[in-house]
Structure formats: structure tokens, C-alpha cells
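Components:
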Amino acid sequence: MNQPVLEISGLSVDYGYHDDAVHALRDVSLSLGRGEVLGLAGESGCGKSTLAYAATRLLPPPGLITGGEVLFHSRTGETLDLLRLPDDELRAARWDEIAIVFQGAMNSLNPVRRVGRQLTDVMAAHRPGVPMSVHKGRARELLGLVGIPADRMPAYPHQLSGGQRQRVMIAMALALDPQVVIMDEPTTALDVVTQRQIVERLIALRAELGFSVVFITHDVSLLIEMADRIAVMYAGRIVEDAPAAEIYAEPRHPYTRGLLGSFPPLRGPRRALSGIPGAPPDLASLPPGCAFAPRCPHAFARCEGERPELSGGRRLSACFLPADGPVAAVQGVAPVE
Amino acid sequence: MAETPPPPDDRVVLSARGLTKHFPVRKGLRRKAVRAVESVDLTLRRGSVVALVGESGSGKSTVARLLAMLHPATAGEVRLRGEPVSARFGRRFRAYCRQVQMIFQDPFASLNPVHTVRYILTRSLRIHHAGLSTPELTARLAGLLEQVHLTPPERYLDKFPHELSGGQRQRVSIARALGAGPSVLLADEPVSMLDVSIRLGVLNLLRELTTELDLAVLYITHDIASARYFADTTVVMYAGEIVESGDSEAVTQDPAHPYTRLLIASAPDPDRPGGDREIPARGEPPSLITPPPGCRFHPRCPQAMERCRTQAPPALPGPGGRAVACWLYDTEAPE
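Structure:
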């Protein structure tokens, strides 16, 4: 897992132009190891979807990439600069090398085409010259992989349940054996039972096929269970980036801690939790210092004027508080009973 | 969140017995019905929160709408303080609404975007308390906003919904419900549309109001962990039927019904011991037009017996005073 497959550095994205621009993503650097499951966590509007779309150049206008670099290292040792690739090469690389499962993906299927046909379409577009029978066989195999009987090939999307449609979308993303699968809130619209089935299937497939996953969600407790590493975003920046178990056991950034404290636990003592005070930031008018400072229980003078950089060795965090400092009295975890 | 002693029965405000709702659908020439809610019994007591937990399509929102008299029930009755409720319009219906108020899921859709907070709250006060003088009204408006922690009130009164954040909007809709002076709040997924970091703030506010105003609250959610956090009693629904009900802590820590077990095992839980990820059941919820005979969960149930396929289990006494609709808890069972 040491060798990165995707390297994002200094990526910045604006929505809008000139003075009206909202800086949705600022100077984001992230690397994804081969075979790694990277969780991208944060509240709505923090830029996590923007990051996924910018990295694959799928941003709709007025989204504009204003700086940075996205490098993709293929299995053969080739390096692609995704932001500077000519359109036709980019089109070939998307889906083939990097596949995306969009938010609300179960509604992205074409309602008037049979799902089998939609699966073979992808393969026919990227692998022209291969006989259709081969594609059909592969489509059958893919449906089997995601736990849908192959005899559902002639079904229309409306004949499948939401969970099945979502699994068809995952099958589609895996159709060309990509090395990176980006999943943008793939299970948010689903029930917990279905979500669990899909996540387990995904983890099993990852072990089997060896692709890397970027899993975007606001549900940190789900990420802690399934991800190898978690990057937490706030107001367009990454504020903490560390192995999942360490984030859970010992979060360093107060925002991460607040986010973890926002999910009532299913086990252990019942205690009063408070979430995070205040409201998520308005990207159009951010404070000059740390964007989280107005909501942070530990903010001090320095936080208001100066912005902390993401730093640290293996465990990155963007906070002026000492990494091993005594910040135990965290809001939201004071036992009450 | 101390354990409250079991409240005496005069604390019961709203109760439902055998509540059933079938929505008619037409398939070809035959008339059929979606059996959305089947014979649901529910009791709401003052000063306590009941959580109704279930997957989407399990009928939990329909139950809330039936209790709010927004849908006519197919069968069963709702009693407010022991009196059967039947009015669906007119003065008696308004009197009922004054007592039973709803909070909806989406605060972006449930507040009229062209009106200010002042207007939205004034409407609620004027409709339900006719003849308020202007100074009384002003005082009440400020009081409502203070109750939901939107202080100072002057800062919020003349705002439009789009000028408020999601959490603030949901607080305004709670204030609007409180404006009627209700004794029952039906909260249909009140936090699931809000940002994660502010959900608990709204839940804590509702908890505070429950105690302060001695309200009976029905909290509808799909998130069983938040039910454990927020509610005194948890009721689990599956495919339109109640499968388990009892003390929240008991239901979540020691689930008795196989479906509750499935729900708990599936919920994200970072504390779960590693490797213990065995999901006890597969499959999907059944069609409610032609629900399976017997127990509606039997096609997915790992412990299904012959009897489950033909006979629907009634609510049986389970461990710790819980009601569990499962034949596993039938003590007179001929094995």
C-alpha cells in the first residue's frame, strides 16, 4: 500500500469567477495507496464531492480548477497527469482506470434500457472490436460479483429495488477492471441493512480484485469500520488525515472529535452529547484564520489570525493545538449519568 | 438521562389501538391495496419520548400521519386522553390539531419561503389562540424563539427561511409547532436532513422541551442509535407491523426479535469487535401489496419455523417486559 495510485497535490477549485468566486476547495493534497480504502468525511458543503469531481475533471460549470495537479500511476508504471490530459485520452482513462459511482447513483440508470444492455454498452464503448457475446458473459459475471442473479440481465431498472440498482451501478463501475473506484455517498439513500450488504460486498471485492476506493460520506462511524485511512474535510480543506483506527481512538483535530461525538454510540454508556455548536461555515465569507475557530471549543488567539497548515508525519492534522496536548475535556463526551 | 419510573397511566395522552391503513392501488382491472400499516398499537405518555424505528417503507411515517389525522385510518382508533378522535375537519379537528402537532423532515420544504419567521409563527399563534392582543402576541413570539434557543429573538423575527441555516430552520418549525400549545409532538425524521454536526443540538432541544413542557413525543427515525440516545421507549416496525417494543436501552442492547437483531447488526458501529460482522439475515423487505402469509419477516428470518409461515405472531411478552411479535417467545409453544 506504499505505492500511490492517485496523487492529488495543491488542488484548488472555485465556483464562479473573479471576485464572486467561492473557494470550494483550497490547496488540497491527498494520496491514495494501491488497494487502499480511503474515506473522505465531512459535512455537506465541505467540498468532498467537489474534490472527487475535480480530480476526474468532471466538474460542471461554474466549477473551475484554479490550481494543482492530479497524477495517476497505472499498473504498468505509466503516469497520467489527469488535469492536463487531452480530452480523448482522458475519456479513455475514465472508467477504464478511474470509475465513479455518483451520489444517488441508483437514479442514474437509464429507465428505458435493460440493465444488462447498460452494462454491455460501457464495455462496447471502451473495448470496441470485442464480440458482444464476450461482453455479455462479463456482464453476467459482474452481476454475480455484486450479488444479483445473472437472470436479472433483462430487467429494467424499475424492476429492481433501490439496493439492487445501487449494486448494478457498482458492477458497472467495476466493468473495466479499474484501479480506482470513487464512490460519492453510494449508500446514503439506502437502508442500513442494504447499506451493510453493499459495503461488505465492496470490501470483499476489493480484496479479490485489488482496486483502490475513495469512499465519500458524511457518516464517519461507517468509515471507521470500513476504511483504511480517513481524510476529514472542513470548509474546502483537509483538516485531518490519518489511519481510521487512530482517528477513532485518538482524533487530533477538534472538528474530527466533534464529528465523532455527533454520532450517538450504539454500545457503551449512554451519555449526553452535544454535537458541534454553531453552524457549518459559509464558504463565501470565511474567517482569516482557522475556518473552524468560531465553532472550536479550544480556539485561542492564534487561531483567529493565522491558518494552521496540514502537518505531521504519518498522521496529518491542521491545528495549532499540541498533538499530544491534554485536550481530554472535549465537549460532547462528558459523562452525565 | 436518568431512568424514569414507569409513569402511571393517567400520563397517557395519545394512544392508538389496532391502527390500520391500506392504500388502494389499481393493477389492471383488479383493485388491490398496499397494506402500509397493520394493526399498530402505540401509547404516548407525557414527558416521555417514543421512537418509531424502521426501514423506509416500513410504515413509520404513515403511522405519524394517521395519528395527526392527515390520513383517514382504514381501521382502528386513536384516543386523545381516553376520548376517541374522529374529527377530520371543522372546529373539532382544529381543537385536535392544537393538541397534536407535527414536525416534518425537511425544514427547507416545510417553511413557506415567501414569509418571514414572524409571519410563520404569528399564523400558528393566531389560528390556535384567537383573540391575542398585540403586546401578548409580541411577547409570545419572543417566548417561542427563546424556547428553541434562537436568541436574541429580534435577530430572527424578520428573517426569511432562506436566510437561516438548516438547524435554525428546523428550530423555527419546532417553534411553530409549539405555538399551538400542543401536548403531543409527532416528529417525522426531524434531524435526518440536517448536517451531522448540528443534529444532536436539535435532538437535545427536543429532549429539553419534552421535560420542560411535559410533552409526549413520537420520534420517527431510521437510525436506531439515535433512538437509543434520545428515546425512552423504542418501537421497531417491519413491513407495516410492530415487531418489538420496549425500553430503548433494552431493545438496543439485547434485541429480542430477529429483525431488530438484523437492524442492530447492520448499523455502523465503530466499537464492534473486529471480525464479528456476521449479518444474521439477507434479502429485502416484502411487497406490501401481497405480504407473505404468517410472520412478514419469515422469508428473511434465520430462525423461521414452520409455524411462522402460516400464523402471524401476536405481541408476546419478551425479556424484560418487552413486547415481541415472534413465535420464539411463545412459552406455550409445542416445540
